[in-house]
Amino acid sequence: MILKTNFNLKHLNTFKLESSCDFYSEINQIDEVKELSGIVSQKPQLVSLLSANQKVFFILGGGSNLIFREHIHGFVVKNNLKSIKEIARDSVNTYVQVASGEVWHDFVLWGLDHGYFGLENLALIPGTVGAAPIQNIGAYGVEVKKFIHSVKGVDLSTSKMRVLSSDECQFSYRDSIFKKSGYKNFFITEVIFKFPLFYQPECSYGELKDFFKSHEISPRAIANKVIEIRREKLPSLELYPNVGSFFKNPLITQEQLNVLKKRTPHLVSYPHGEKIKLSAGQLIELAGFKGLLHGNFMMYSRQALVMVNQGGGSFEGAIALAEKVRFKVLNDFGVSLEIEPDIW
Predict the structure, then answer these.
(1) What pTM did the predictor assign?
(2) Which of the residues 102, 120, 190, 340 is marked catalytic?
(3) pLDDT tens-digit map of 135-193
(4) Is 263 a catalytic residue?
(5) Domains of the chain, earliest start first
(6) Which end of the chain is more exposed for a tag (fewer CB within 10 A), N or C?
(7) Out of 19, 120, 150, 174, which one is annotated catalytic?
(8) What is the Cβ-side half-sphere exposure of residue 339, based on CA atoms within 13 angstroms?
(9) 340 is catalytic
């Protein structure tokens, strides 16, 4: 394992923000994970952070759902763990163990090729498998929690391995236990997925519902349509550096929705458990930010939910635009927007 200091991270975040970190290394084998704690014990500034119960380890996958500060005080570890294998089968599910460094979209396509269905609605989401449970990623009517059996990992502050069941992961909308303070130094090494033997497609959401009224439904067809929709709506990471959805879709009560619809009848909404989910992108567009340039950043002209870096943007510039958007949406609609990507 090669340890680097004051390492430049610009090429490792899809937002292309200038950033660096105290220490950087890469993990290629699971056996190397426990070595990280030993490295920290030799670095006084990291020991100090650990003693103060601060976040020391920043586990980096695809860098696609992260907003980097100018300098990260800690140890950034690039996760390159690779492995996919079926480990069990019962009368209901097939269980597949996937290393956390696998590219998420590649895993979805692998599943389609090998007859493991259910994740096709989540095709083309950037990032790695290890990030999926942290964020409880979701799209087009599906959240990944439905297909997660358990999560394996190592608490790097103690070097102890843990296996958490799906219930123990405390999944909720774009959230999980892995975002809580007790897991700030937890390294997810593998995710165990459960794929039902009896496939039930999910096509009730928006464009999918309309498309499959006149087209034959299959896992591959759903994946292809999701990929088409995402490519049409979302900016290319190469041309327009971004972190995907910049805000979570807000959840409100039915009573709040009734009040909002009196003023804005065409407001898009979806049921979400006992709550109602609004479209953050629509709120941002109605607030006047779609396509509006603010410094080096813009809420994308074809999907206002996505903030793009026009070049040379800084952490402070991104947050400044985010705060302007949040203030205007709260003022216009009484709805609070929450930033979706993690801030390092």
Answers:
(1) 0.93
(2) 340
(3) 999 999 999 999 999 999 999 988 999 999 999 999 999 999 999 999 999 999 999 99
(4) no
(5) 4-79 (3.30.43.10), 84-196 (3.30.465.10), 242-343 (3.90.78.10)
(6) N
(7) 174
(8) 18
(9) yes
